[in-house]
Amino acid sequence: SVTFNATANAGAADVLSKNGGDAQTGTVGGLLGSSLEVRVVDSFGNAKSGVVVTFTPAGGSGSVSSPTATTDVNGLATVNWTLGTTSGAQSVTATMPSGTTASVTFNATANPDVPASITVNTDPVPNGAGNGSFATQPVITVKDQYGNAVGAGITVTATLNPILTATGTLTGTPNPSTGANGQITFSLGLAGATSGDNYTITFSIGGITAQTLPFNVP
Questions:
Q1: What is the pTM of this model?
Q2: Tens-place pLDDT, residues 177-186
Q3: Distance (Å, rounded) from C-alpha 40 to C-alpha 98?
């Protein structure tokens, strides 16, 4: 008897699929913890090696460690993904030259970085009587190093700064926390102020500060 042997190679690349790294959450400008991995098979599900896969970040979605990767003997190709600097949804699309399914998209959520600045959106305006709640409350936004609003839960401290002989004190809630949009609309006022007094208010998070324009008590 005799035995005939043959080697069956995988057919043409037919299906590109995600094999790992989808739906991650990270910090803006940061490297995601898991690589983006795709798998290429022929029409029978056999792993296909030697296929060049192109990885393309969407606009604002950062960068990948290499624009292309070639599948190994297991049909796998991987790259690392560094998120862009704008918070929110980001994506990378992987494509191969041809096939029934030749393109897949990886998605990720980029969270803001730590607080880096405070912006005063609205300066306070005292009411007509001078003391009591401000007629216009101060509004601030806390942002990270890239200008993204930091989100909820960041405590900001408001401190009254009397100018020259002013002697009033700040009333209300001086230590509120940011909302989901990174903003705070304060509930503040004055006590013990005298007509003609001038003040500013400083907002701070540790060593990060911002100051209002000077305001005058009627």
A1: 0.90
A2: 999 999 999 9
A3: 11
